[in-house]
Write a structure and sequence with these properties.
It contains 18 helices and no strands. With about 475 residues, the protein is an all-alpha fold. It is a multi-pass membrane protein.
């Protein structure tokens, strides 16, 4: 193994800041088009099911790229990966701004997502490596601040820009900011990860991963227009599930798997993985349909629909570092359980009363949902990583990051498809069907969140530092 860690030659705070800023910009683009979707739908004459792929495709590509990250982190240096990720993201951003049609814009989003998909696990892995074990909860709080706060605040930022200018300026504005990060990295970035030139990747595994996740997500997206019982819908989902099963079997047989599924033999990691999937899926699904509903049915502007999401995003971002510190002191379980209680309880009124009552009503309960999400994100990730030995960190990060991306994509596909399939019911007029669809959709989200609460009760009560010490002993 080729040791490329340059001990003492970098400033940890500057390095973390640079990586987090770059990741913030990249992850921001997961959801920055949410409030712009109605305008894009008009410009390119497409429906909501097709438009949501601009969001889903980003997360889907992350889900395909991120599993390869364990190989990339082992095979290439920090500088090589970071500069490649940022350069790729810049190309996609430029292409997005000048897109002439929906297909061109969708391709641009795929290219952007490749860069973001490399960057997210790289940052998490580096921070885990260079942060003292007793401070990892706080460090993960900063990572959560980026990974959760950036996409949460994206729609609000985008709403103002779309109202004043157009959706193209979401790309024009992102490009110079990313370029500044690239230039700063030239002067400040150092290699902090280990490289192994003998590390290899299995191409068939990459193909299986792409087929599995694309099949499942495309099938789910078809449900909104063709129906959940459609042969085409079911066929795509089944094809994706079969490919996923083959992928898992193959990875377990490889000496150097692309995705190390053996991390799931650690019960706490498995439970945490399911919980984060539920949290991310309902978070992004809710965040996507609220702007669609408020703009198309309630007639509010893109800025207003973005501002509806802003208070919750801001509070979740502010909370994240503090929640990380609390996690270091009291452990994971209590915060995760409390988070799911808040999420579940705050979703019930949206399902029962109906969000058409008032904009204030939407803001209050959506904000409460985001507070609940902020309470559990850092503890879940900290608990998941602390449940596995240190030598599995890069694989754990890859699996965890893949799940968050895929869960977000699946959440958007299922929730948007459910919403559109119900709202297209011919027995109701357009306005009433939209309101009825939103109520049913939030009821489903409430049930899913409730399942997460029950599962959270299965987490162990140990403090994170104690678990880390156990894992260090296991890996030594």
């Amino acid at each position: 193994m080729n040791q490329s860690i340059q001990t003492g030659k970098y400033n940890r705070k500057i390095l973390i800041t640079l990586l987090l800023v770059g990741t913030f910009i990249a992850v921001l683009n997961q959801t920055i088009l949410i409030t712009a979707l109605p305008q894009i739908m008009v410009d390119f004459k497409i429906d909501a099911n097709k438009a949501q792929w601009l969001i889903t495709s980003f997360m889907l590509t992350n889900g395909i790229i991120v599993p390869i990250s364990a190989f990339l982190i082992a095979r290439f240096t920090t500088k090589q990966l970071f500069f490649t990720a940022v350069a790729t993201f810049l190309i996609g951003t430029l292409l997005g701004g000048i897109s002439l049609n929906f297909t061109m814009l969708l391709i641009a989003r795929f290219i952007q997502a490749v860069g973001a998909g490399i960057m997210m696990p790289l940052v998490s892995n580096i921070i885990l490596l260079i942060t003292p074990k007793e401070n990892r909860g706080s460090a993960m709080g900063l990572v959560v601040l980026v990974i959760c706060f950036a996409p949460a605040i994206g729609p609000a930022i985008a709403g103002g820009i779309v109202d004043v200018l157009s959706w193209r300026y979401l790309f024009y504005g992102t490009f110079p900011l990313t370029l500044i990060v690239f230039i700063c990295a030239i002067f400040t970035l150092e290699n902090v990860t280990e490289t192994n030139k003998n590390e290899k990747i299995d191409v068939i595994s990459i193909i299986l991963s792409a087929v599995a996740f694309t099949g499942i997500l495309y099938g789910l997206s078809l449900a909104g227009s063709l129906g959940w019982g459609s042969v085409k819908t079911i066929g795509w989902v089944i094809a994706g599930v079969v490919a996923l099963w083959v992928l898992v079997v193959k990875q377990l047989k490889l000496s150097q798997p692309m995705i190390e599924f053996r991390v799931f033999k650690y019960n706490t990691f498995t439970v945490s993985a399911i919980l984060v999937s539920i949290a991310f899926g309902t978070l992004f699904g809710t965040e996507t349909i609220i702007p669609l509903y408020t703009q198309n049915v309630e007639g509010v502007s893109a800025l207003t629909s973005g501002l509806i999401l802003l208070p919750g995003a801001a509070l979740m971002g502010i909370m994240s570092p503090f929640v990380g510190r609390i996690t270091d002191k009291i452990g994971v379980k209590y915060l995760v359980v409390l988070g799911f209680i808040v999420i579940t309880v705050s979703t019930i009124p949206l399902a029962i009363i109906g969000i058409e009552k008032s904009i204030t009503f939407i803001v209050i309960f959506y904000t409460l949902r985001m507070i609940g999400t902020g309470l559990l994100m850092a503890p879940i990730q900290t608990g998941a990583m602390n449940a596995i030995p240190q030598y599995l960190f890069r694989h754990g990060v890859a699996v965890y990051s893949t799940l968050t991306s895929i869960a977000g994509s699946v959440g958007i596909s299922i929730i948007v498809s459910l919403y559109t399939s119900i709202s297209n019911n011919g027995d109701l007029n357009t306005l009433e069907s939209e309101k009825y669809a939103m109520g049913i959709t939030f009821m489903v989200i409430t049930i899913i969140s409730g399942v997460g609460l029950l599962l959270a009760l299965k987490l162990k009560k140990e403090k994170t530092q104690e678990k880390i010490e156990d894992n260090v002993e296991m890996s030594s």
